[in-house]
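Service request form, structural biology core

Requester: graduate student, group of Dr. S.
Request type: structure prediction, single chain
Budget code: on file
Notes: please return the result as structure tokens.

Sequence provided:
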Amino acid sequence: MDSLETDLQVVSYVKAAFLTLLAYDTILHIGQEYRYVWKSRWSVVKILYLWTRYSTFIDTILAVQERVDFSRDASSCNRIMTFTTIFAGFGIGVAEIILMIRTYALYERSKKLLVFFTVIWFAAGGVNFWAVIQWTRSFKTEAAPSVGSACYLSGSDGGIGLVCYTSLLAGETLIVILTLWKALRNVHLQRSKLVTSFYRDGVLFYLAILPFSVANVAILFLAPPGLNLIADTPLRVMHSILCCHLITHVRSTALQDEETETRSALIFAKSPKSGGTYDVRSDFV
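Core staff response, request fulfilled:
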């Protein structure tokens, strides 16, 4: 029992730590957000940014509150876990749209890629919606034996949960492969700082989020009951932070390009077979 108590306390600390990280990052970058997001015209990317940034507080706060509200019984905890799991899953799905839009911009707004991404997102979304509903129905919660947590997830159908995490991992792997493929095909072309930023940030995002995705898969089958939910909040928070940074950084880089090259906007320039330049629109992301 001592081991279970320790595990539950660790999970509570991790969730609280990532809520603190989310709040700290939001406050720290409020200036950049105002300059590059709030002052910009309304667009799909702006809406996606605001949702990804601020909706994360809802399920993260609930996840922490559920750990420390000792007046809750197991059934109440089950309802909160179900809601936060579904809500966080949808939020991560929205963040994935940001990654797809970035890749779409890199491919010069290819209609074929747009159709492909649309089909993939809705197909994966449908499968994951079914999977997460079935997964949350398999949740088994119990009252915690210590002050480290109010209750905990004692069991679930890891096979169904695996569908959610592997599809997320597959989607992000596909996006980074498309990014690298585009970079290799245009390696001989002169690129702006903006395009270089697209390539570099996309790969770094994948490398940064990969450990969290892999950890969630491993925990499904290897972790003891007390550690079942230790990595779900970190995955959600890091998706929010990193995707929002992708947007503000690329807009900051675009502004620097415009200032140094005295251009009002960057436009698509189709890549010739040899030589030439390659750019993307700065106002698209």
